[in-house]
Amino acid sequence: MLVGVATIQGDFEKHIEALEAVGVSRSSIVGVKTPDHLKEIDRLIIPGGESTTVSKLMAFTGLDEAIKVRAAEGMPVWGTCMGMIMMARDIEGSEQQTLGLIDITVRRNAFGAQVHSFEQEIDVAGLDEPVNGVFIRAPEITRLGEGVECIAECRGKAVAARCGRLIGTSFHPELTDDRRLHELFLSL
Ligand code: GLN
Question: What's the gap in Å between 46 CA and the centre of ligand 1?
Answer without folding.
Answer: 12
